[in-house]
Design brief:
Blueprint lengths: L8 E8 L8 H9 L2 E10 L7 H7 L5 E4 L9 H16 L4 E5 L6 H9 L3 E6 L5 H6 L2 E4 H4 L15 H6 L1 H14 L6 E2 H11 L13 H7 L3 E7 L5 E7 L10
Parallel strand pairs: 1-2, 1-4, 2-3, 4-5, 5-6
Antiparallel strand pairs: 7-9, 8-9
Helix pairs in contact: 8-9
């Protein structure tokens, strides 16, 4: 008998229709599938207004439940309050492993922190204008411009950066070096999985796709700064190990 696969994590996807473009929806659904199953999918807004028309055609296709919230007072965002109340109800009544909060609004910063205090994962998704406080309150944050254009493995509108271009990005290089150093063993080797976890803990919105690469391993390899070794275990799992090369050394891969 083959061993059973571990159960998928169960997520509630809550979308603030006023603060995210509908064009990101297809990529968003595909992104959530990388982490688990979207058990609950709700979208909040005043559906009597014409500005949400672009969302309506996609709701049935993706089985997303629209939640109507009238704007009783001009300038007040009742949508935020409705989403937050529902999130807290789900947090304590539903058997979930995490939430995906889709918005570019800083009003959800405390909600993300509160959910994490209960031990659940929080994935944020919003536009580049999203305030830093909301981004860092999440375990993982994905920008919608990365998702836009469906879930292709390599984005045609984001060309791969060369090794020279990557090395000029001091913030990126310093982050990679720090993550490898923080994860390395006595011989200087670091497991890529541990490196990725360190990066996410420091910068939740980090994404290799922002540099034109579909995976962190491809991005790391493209820098030409690390020696890379792939090890296959008895169960067929491939572990990627890396360590920083001394200056002027050519990268070695095995």
């Amino acid at each position: 008998m083959e061993p059973s696969s571990p159960p998928q994590r169960r997520f509630a996807v809550l979308i603030d229709a006023d603060n995210v473009s509908a064009s990101a929806l297809e990529g968003l659904i595909a992104e959530i599938a990388n982490y688990g199953v979207a058990l609950i999918k709700r979208i909040y807004g005043d559906w009597t207004l014409p500005n949400l028309k672009s969302w309506k055609a996609q709701l049935l296709e993706h089985a997303i439940q629209p939640i109507q919230q009238f704007r009783y007072t001009v300038g007040k965002n009742a949508t935020d309050s409705a989403l937050i109340i529902d999130a807290m109800d789900l947090l304590f009544r539903a058997k979930l492993d995490g939430f995906c909060l889709v918005s570019s609004d800083s009003d959800f910063t405390r909600l993300a922190s509160r959910i994490r205090e209960e031990g659940l994962m929080v994935i944020g998704c919003g536009e580049r204008k999203t305030p830093r406080a909301f981004v860092t309150a999440c375990d993982r944050f994905v920008f919608t411009d990365i998702l836009r254009g469906a879930a292709a493995p390599e984005r045609e509108n984001e060309p791969k950066k060369t090794a020279s271009e990557l090395k000029l990005d001091r913030k990126l290089i310093d982050l990679l070096r720090w993550a490898v150093e923080a994860s390395e063993d006595d011989d200087g080797w670091a497991n890529l999985g541990a490196v990725g976890a360190k990066i996410m803990s420091q910068q939740p919105d980090f994404d290799a796709r922002s540099y034109g690469f579909s995976k962190l391993s491809s991005l790391v390899e493209a820098t030409n700064m690390f020696e890379i070794e792939r090890q296959t275990s008895q169960n067929g799992r491939v572990d990627i190990l890396l360590r920083e090369l001394p200056p002027q050394s050519a990268p070695r891969r095995r």
